[in-house]
Amino acid sequence: MKVTVIGTGYVGLTTGVTLAYLGHEVTCVDLDIGKIDRLNDGVLPIFEPGLGELMAESRDRLAFTTSYLDSVLEADVIFFAVGTPAGPDGSPNLSYLLAAVENTTRYLSGKEKPTVLVNKSTVPVGTADQIAGMIDEAGLGDKVSVASNPEFLSQSKAVYDTLYPDRIVVGGDDSSVAVLTDLYSSIISQSFKAPDHTPRPAGLTHVPLIRVDRRSAELAKYAANAFLSMKISFINEIANVCDRVGADVTNVARIIGTDPRIGSSFLRAGIGYGGSCFPKDTKALQYIADTNGYEFKLLSAVIEVNNEQKYRVIEKLREHVYPIYGEKIAVLGLTFKPGTDDLREAPSIPIINALIDEGAEVFVHDPVALEKARPLLPAKVRLRSNLEEVLKNAGAALLVTEWPEYVNLEPDYLRSVMRRPLLIDGRNALGESRRAGLEYDGIGLGNPNRDQQTGRRSHVS
Fold this sequence. Notes:
- The chain is of the alpha/beta class.
- Helix content is 40%, strand content 13%.
- Helix 1 packs across helix 3.
- The chain is globular and about 70 Å long.
- It starts with a strand and ends in a 20-residue tail after the last strand.
């Protein structure tokens, strides 16, 4: 099929590249001339494992342009994958999406063959109906159908999630569902040759396609992210209780995670969720509920817990080092998770700002995001590409992102370079062997030096 993807962010670029890999002719459209020029030169605008290799393998079926005219006229399917950023009240900003729809409809009137417009952007319930209304107003209802096809990608494994999804959700009428079933047929049947860098999981032979109405498809994306966010906030609340009663949250999570009704995923305590999806989508769902007259109390609590959780590492640090003023503190990691360069809603930013506010001398390392972070942080923060320079003579280190280079640090090395080998692990990422010989504290690990009645440490080293 001939496919156009409008928007070259995480979702749009991953969708376009993987569909080209599967044999479709794909044109990706973006109004950012610089980004399109870089993509035509083979340079990715994002850090996403496996995507560059897949793009190189699919280059003969993949085009990048700023022109709607060149891409829309011959397309069988047109995907919208543009940003819907949250406003101050949590409401999604649909201006970019609706502008993309308007630009597209200008070039559809002269087409002979039918076209399916597919929204992959995360949007409020009823947006696909609004797009269908725009199509009808333009007199294109007999040629153009509209579908909702939400994505369920995780950054740092977007290629894997696209090729081997748990499910494909399509909201639309018979004609649009038939076209998308055909488009995704090789994923549904898992009949494509798996790329060497992203092998197929053992035993996967079929991916279900779930057909629903457009409104249910739109709400399902918000519901999925809200539920996963709830699991993270729940286990973080349990972790905070564990710190006060001397229990170990990793043991608690392991026990409850074996219950198939609960499951083990997203039960890792730490400093909370971040990124482009969970914070935005939970706020958007809260806004949708509010504007429709419903107080979503559980979701409000999920958001509140997450907003506060990131500061647990600062509280932990104060228990060991007080005052923080004048101390050299090493911050390990900037991105909201390893495997991506995304800093949107990353806990590292408010953590670093809090350290600066308390007068700490802050040195920061991240393997991929230093330059992206520079304009987001106070000028006095020292961003360094050399990890040893960040750790040297530090009075404490905060592990904020569990990049492998931090998780695999040897205790002997930390003791040799740091002034005080104190590690506050905001992700509970270090195993027992890596903690040996360090002053170590994590989230919800039941610190034995904490007074169980007051919740405070009985002594400060």
